[in-house]
Design brief:
Chain A: Keywords: Cell membrane, Membrane, Transmembrane, Transmembrane helix. Chain A: It is a multi-pass membrane protein. Chain A: It holds the Pfam family BPD_transp_2. The complex is a heterodimer of chains A (432) and B (257). Chain A is mostly helical. Helix content of chain A is 70%, strand content 0%. Chain A is built from 17 helices and no strands. In chain A, helix 3 packs parallel to helix 11, helix 4 runs antiparallel to helix 5 and helix 5 packs antiparallel against helix 6. The radius of gyration of chain A is 23 Å and the shape is globular. Chain B has a domain of 162 residues: P-loop containing nucleotide triphosphate hydrolases (Rossmann fold, 3-Layer(aba) Sandwich). Chain B is 32% helix and 24% strand. In chain B, strand 7, helix 6 and strand 8 form a beta-alpha-beta unit. Classes of the chains: A mainly alpha (432), B alpha/beta (257). The interface between A and B is large, with 39 and 53 residues.
């Protein structure tokens, strides 16, 4: 077939600038830019207290819980649904896990407090609850065709109060010591392991880039010039090393170290110091981010999730079972809520009745700020995580400069609307 | 053009006594149709005559209440789009065919992705295959990394058609393939239909444009109110005869098969 339709095409990218040549996602660039601006502004405003290793460490562990759920929300929104129940689901999972470790296992099964099997069993219980509730939501939405908005709005009421019922509204704690390791400050990799992690991450990045280039060359597709690959690789490696270096610069306070030594019946040597390094919760987020990205971009399930968002009828006509797909998407969302519940309750060191309150709105906002389109079909995992990070930085920064909580929320609300407007303008310009 | 029906052996497709009703209204009411290799059969009728519903039962998009489908003389069990693909029945829809947010290769392979040995989607291989088939169908097509939303109507249609051709369709259902296309693009699609026909495919062509049907089809089947008015050999009737069938439900005196 000849092609006589050039007039209907969008303007071609004749302008080959550096960003085009390097094939960098300009939206990602914009979000990183916004993030950097926020960081610099608050750092100046707070007189250099914002960009300290301590604050960056805190920022990362505060972001994890919302960021984990935001990656799942991307799938939900991409398939043209919404999940208003994630905060409530988090609370229910947290309540189940707290009851398992403080009541069910010690009292019913006679397992001593502090036993190493408590934490894994509690987490597995939480994950099963999360997946089951998520899949149930998916079934109501996919098979009974009740709108997701309604199912999860109902879910918000139900699961928030199922959590209350399980704990009778009480705070449950302290939680198991091994469980707390996933909360953030209670469990970090330390200096050496963090550097090893950085090394692995760098090697992995380089390997991925080389493989991608080889695959293109094998099929004789156009490739980026070598210098562009090297520059991108260098930026990625610098980011990884820089991140780990910052977390490795945060020293454990001397008083705490001395206490740890005393607890072991030892005395702390003079001049001894230790650093936190990468928290396990952040490591968990990184693993989830990689897994979800692979799922989104390189598996059939991911392809069908995006196809459904783009055109549900076409996807169904292509022989894909959209109903079951909906169940899978919400089951994944439920799994991630449970993982978030582990991190959130471990960070608090106990289960509280209001854990995860309003998280549904933060999670949706993170996904949307991260470029997920509510009309479906468009969204990225890294965008949602960056969105969560941007929101958390805004809130932490405002808290540090003494903005009162109600004003913080006003700013976050405005930023959300503004971010979506900028995204609309961006899409109009680029035509995607 | 059309050979004598009796001398052509087994039909590619035979639909017998097809029936489908929606809430008491018979959308398709006991229709029997067949299609032979290398033949284009036009399916005509007003909106709501039941032609799309009939074709959707063949493509597995709708389940049928009654009726049998025979492919190459054997009873075929078609209950969903996957079943239809198994019998090498492919459909080209005008509006429903493509996921706008995905690129050409992802659309071409949707539901039948190529995977690597580790089970991951092999995008590079799919792009390579897409480039190959496009080089044949639409050599000017170069926009392999753009979501198909950004493509022109003709380009989109060539993606949809490439899907059918790539998977070696035996039976092709085209639902108004040229409705959204310009004159030049319509001519391209017409050429493609001729080419596929010469390769021995059977094509059902749903179209409102009687002129196009007269040009492209060997036979035309006209439906009205869910019933088959009749099937005629196109070169033995006039446009007016066919119009009479569509509007009045009147079969012409000669040419009826």
């Amino acid at each position: 077939m000849a092609d006589s339709t050039d007039t209907r095409q969008l303007p071609k990218h004749v302008r080959r600038n550096i960003i085009d040549t390097m094939e960098i996602d300009t939206r990602l660039l914009g979000m990183i830019g916004a993030f950097i601006v926020i960081c610099v502004v608050f750092d100046v405003w707070t007189g250099g207290r914002f960009l300290t290793p301590r604050n960056i460490f805190n920022l990362t562990i505060q972001t994890v819980s919302v960021a984990i759920m935001a990656t799942g929300m991307v799938f939900v929104i991409v398939t043209r649904h919404i999940d208003l129940s994630v905060g409530a689901l988090l609370a229910t999972c947290s309540a189940f896990m707290a009851m398992t470790q403080t009541a069910v296992l010690p009292q019913w099964f006679g397992i001593e407090l502090g036993s190493p099997i408590i934490a894994p069993v509690a987490i597995i219980v939480g994950l099963i609850v999360g997946v089951a509730i998520g899949a149930f939501h998916g079934w109501l939405i996919g098979y009974l065709t009740i709108p997701a908005f309604i199912v999860t709005l109902g879910g918000l009421f139900v699961w928030r109060n199922v959590a209350w019922h399980l704990s009778r509204g009480q705070t449950i704690g302290p939680l198991d010591g091994n469980f707390l390791v996933l909360g953030g400050i209670e469990g970090t990799l330390g200096a050496t392991a963090s550097w090893i992690l950085a090394l692995i991450a760098c090697a992995f990045t380089i390997m991925l880039m080389i493989n991608a280039r080889r695959a293109k060359l094998r099929h004789e597709f156009p490739v980026k010039p070598i210098w562009a690959e090297v520059v991108i690789g260098a930026i990625a490696i610098a980011a990884i090393v820089g991140f780990v270096w910052i977390l490795n610069s945060y020293e454990v306070p001397g008083g705490r170290l001395a206490r740890d030594f005393r607890a072991r019946g030892e005395t702390m040597p003079e001049g001894y110091s230790e650093v936190y390094g990468v928290p396990y919760s952040v490591l968990l987020l990184i693993i989830i981010a990689i897994a979800m990205t692979v799922l989104a971009q390189r598996t059939r399930l991911g392809r069908y999730i995006f196809a459904t968002g783009g055109n549900p009828e076409a996807t169904e006509l292509a022989g894909i079972n959209i109903r079951f797909l909906t169940v899978k998407v919400f089951a994944i969302m439920g799994l991630l809520c449970a993982l978030s519940a582990v991190v959130a309750s471990a960070r608090l060191t106990f289960h509280t009745n209001d854990i995860g309150t309003l998280d549904e709105l933060r999670v949706i906002a993170a996904a949307v700020i991260g470029g997920t389109a509510l009309s479906g079909g468009i969204g990225t995992i890294y965008g949602a995580i960056l969105g969560a990070l941007i929101m958390q930085s805004l809130q932490s920064g405002m808290a540090m400069v003494g903005v009162e909580a109600p004003y913080q929320n006003i700013v976050v609300g405005i930023v959300l609307v503004l971010a979506v407007y900028v995204d609309i303008l961006y899409r109009k310009r680029t035509g995607d | 053009m059309a050979l004598d029906t009796e001398s052509r052996g087994t039909p590619l497709v035979e639909m017998r006594n097809m029936r489908k009703s929606f809430g008491g209204i018979d959308a398709v009411d006991g229709v029997t149709l067949d299609l032979y290799p290398g033949e284009v059969v036009g399916v005509l009728g007003h909106n709501g005559a039941g032609k799309s519903v009939l074709m959707k039962m063949l493509s597995g998009a709708l389940s049928r209440d009654e009726g049998e489908i025979y492919v190459n003389g054997e009873l075929a069990n078609i209950n969903n789009p996957r079943d239809a693909r198994h019998y090498r029945i492919e459909t080209i829809y005008q509006y429903l065919a493509l996921a706008d947010n995905l690129d050409a290769a992802s659309n071409l392979f949707l539901g039948r992705e190529l995977v690597t040995s580790t089970g991951l989607v092999d995008d590079a291989q799919m792009e390579a295959e897409t480039r190959k088939i496009m080089a044949r169908l639409n050599p000017n097509f170069q926009r392999f990394h753009t979501p198909v939303k950004g493509l022109s109507g003709g380009q989109r249609q060539s993606v949809a058609i490439s899907r059918a051709v790539y998977f070696n369709a035996n039976i092709l259902i085209m639902d108004e393939p040229t409705a959204a296309l310009g004159v030049e693009e319509t001519r391209m699609v017409a050429n493609l239909i001729e080419e596929l026909k010469s390769q021995g495919l059977g094509i059902f062509l749903i179209d409102h444009d009687i002129h196009a049907v007269m040009q492209l089809c060997d036979r035309a089947s006209v439906m009205k109110n869910g019933k088959l008015v009749g099937t005629v050999k196109v070169d033995e009737v006039t446009e007016d005869d066919i119009l009479g069938m569509i509007i009045l439900g009147k079969t012409p005196e000669k040419g009826t098969v």
